[in-house]
Specification:
single chain; alpha+beta
Length: about 210
């Protein structure tokens, strides 16, 4: 048997690795194509987050994902009445990595508003529409409140430290190492020298001669 050289062995291993990677890609494509022959029902989520444009409002979102084919109907409803489409923001139907699709629609609502909102989803893969009720919770409101409290406490701490240092005279102390000299307009001139913060030296200079 002919002994295989190291270079030949490496070349054969690289080829097998490439062929394996190529085969996995083909299998992935075939799996997606097989799934496309079937319908997939949507997974529906309803959630709210703080609005980025108005602190008194929430951004209520309905998300449907994992469905196939791509035709999908989503409605955001208030007291079972559909909100006008011109008030909604839509992401448009987008593909997922597994060959299915997703779609989300959002609307801004008042944070303190006492109203029942739900998400109405209809798709060819389901016999009856999916109605997902919003639980009235805000997913990121609590975290923003915590951040606000921490910022307030930090400001208070800085203020207390500044007050303490100022009271001890560590900050805000005037630098009096250089003398201040003032000459009067009369014949007699006065030189006022502040050599330190605790003592003043007055020097009278008589310009009248003898």
């Amino acid at each position: 048997m002919k002994e295989m050289k190291e270079s030949e062995w490496k070349e054969g291993a690289d080829k097998l690795k490439y062929d394996g990677h190529h085969l996995n890609k083909i299998l992935d494509i075939q799996t997606k194509a097989f799934r496309h022959d079937e319908s997939a029902p949507p997974d529906v989520h309803v959630f709210a987050k703080k609005s980025v444009t108005d602190s008194k409002k929430l951004n209520l979102t309905c998300l449907a994902t994992g469905f196939y084919p791509k035709d999908m109907e989503i409605k955001l409803r208030k007291f079972t009445t559909s909100l006008p489409e011109h008030l909604l923001r839509s992401s448009g139907v987008r593909p997922n990595d597994d060959g299915t699709y997703q779609l989300r629609k959002s609307v801004e609502i008042q944070e303190e508003e006492a109203a029942d909102y739900d998400c109405y989803v209809n798709h060819s893969s389901i016999n009856t529409p999916v109605i997902k009720q919003w639980d009235g919770k805000c997913s990121d409101c609590q975290s923003r409140l915590i951040v606000g409290v921490m910022c307030f406490l930090l400001v208070m701490l800085v203020g207390v430290i500044f007050f303490f240092l100022k009271k001890k005279g560590i900050i805000g102390k005037r630098d009096n190492h250089h003398p201040n000299v003032i000459f009067s307009n009369g014949r007699e001139s006065t030189c006022l020298s502040n050599w330190s913060s605790t003592e003043n030296v007055n020097v009278n200079i008589n310009l009248t001669g003898s």
